[in-house]
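Hi support team,

I've been running sequence recovery on a batch of backbones for a student project. Most finish fine, but this one hangs at about 90% for roughly twenty minutes before it completes. I'm not sure whether the input is malformed or the queue is just slow. I've pasted the C-alpha cells below so you can try to reproduce it. Let me know if you need the job ID as well.

Thanks,
M.K.
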C-alpha cells in the first residue's frame, strides 16, 4: 500500500538537490485512481510543497490516456516536458468529480487540478535557471520514485525543433499465417483519403480481454491497450 511518510521523505530529499525543486511549477502525480492511494499522494504533496509554493498544477497523464503500465512513468515524463517547455498545465481530461478525500487533503493548499489546458503562472528563474517539475511513480511492494526536470533559463519557451520527416507504414495481411488481432480486426472504408483507420468491435474477443479491468464497477479500457492497438495496426 502507498506510504505517505515515505513519499514525503523522498520529496524532501529531492528538494535538497541543486535545482529549483523547492517550488516546482508542475507535479505529475502517479495517480493510482484508488480511494486510498490518491488521497495519500495528494496529502503528502500538499503538506510538503504547498507551504512554499504560490501555485502548483497537479495532474496525472492517466486521467487522459489510462494506465500505460510499464510505460506509465515515461508517459508522465513526456507530459511534464511538454508542460515545462510550453508554460502550460496539461488537463486531467477525465476528471468529473473529485474524490472527497482528495478534496479534504488539498484544503488550504495552493494546488490546482486543471480540467482544461491552462496557461501556467510565470515562474521566476532561480540562479539563472528555469522552473522545475516533478514526476512520481509507484511500483509494487512500496517502491516509489520521484524524478525532477528543470528547463534552462535561456531554453525555456524558446525551443524550436524541425518537424520529423513523415513515416509511411504499410500493412500486409496473410490470413493463412496470422490470426486477426482483436484490437485491429477491420479496416474502416470511410477513413479520410490518405489515412488507414483500423477498428474493432467493443464486444466479443476484445471485451473478454479487458473484462477483468474494472474501476469502480465499470470495465475500463486500459492505457496499455492503446499502445498495443497502435502496435497491432
Amino acid at each position: 500500500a502507498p506510504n505517505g511518510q515515505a513519499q514525503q521523505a523522498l520529496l524532501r530529499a529531492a528538494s535538497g538537490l541543486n535545482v529549483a525543486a523547492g517550488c516546482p511549477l508542475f507535479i505529475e502525480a502517479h495517480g493510482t485512481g484508488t480511494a486510498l492511494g490518491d488521497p495519500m499522494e495528494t496529502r503528502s504533496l500538499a503538506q510538503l510543497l504547498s507551504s512554499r509554493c504560490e501555485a502548483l498544477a497537479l495532474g496525472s497523464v492517466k486521467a487522459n490516456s489510462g494506465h500505460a503500465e510499464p510505460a506509465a512513468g515515461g508517459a508522465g515524463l513526456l507530459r511534464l516536458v511538454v508542460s515545462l517547455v510550453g508554460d502550460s498545465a496539461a488537463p486531467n481530461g477525465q476528471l468529473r468529480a473529485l474524490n472527497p478525500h482528495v478534496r479534504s487533503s488539498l484544503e488550504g493548499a495552493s494546488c490546482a487540478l486543471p480540467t482544461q489546458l491552462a496557461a501556467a503562472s510565470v515562474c521566476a528563474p532561480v540562479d539563472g535557471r528555469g522552473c522545475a517539475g516533478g514526476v512520481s511513480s509507484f511500483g509494487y511492494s512500496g517502491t516509489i520514485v520521484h524524478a525532477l526536470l528543470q528547463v534552462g533559463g535561456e531554453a525555456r519557451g524558446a525551443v524550436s525543433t524541425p518537424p520529423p520527416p513523415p513515416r509511411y507504414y504499410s500493412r500486409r495481411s496473410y490470413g493463412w499465417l496470422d490470426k486477426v488481432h482483436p484490437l485491429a480486426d477491420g479496416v474502416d472504408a470511410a477513413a479520410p483519403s490518405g489515412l488507414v483507420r483500423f477498428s474493432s468491435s467493443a464486444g466479443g474477443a476484445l471485451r473478454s480481454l479487458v473484462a477483468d479491468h474494472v474501476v469502480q464497477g465499470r470495465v475500463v479500457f486500459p492505457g496499455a491497450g492503446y499502445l498495443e492497438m497502435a502496435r497491432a495496426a
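--
Follow-up from support: It reproduced on our side and the slowdown came from queue contention, not your input. The CA atoms of residues 66 and 222 lie 5 Å apart. No action needed from you.
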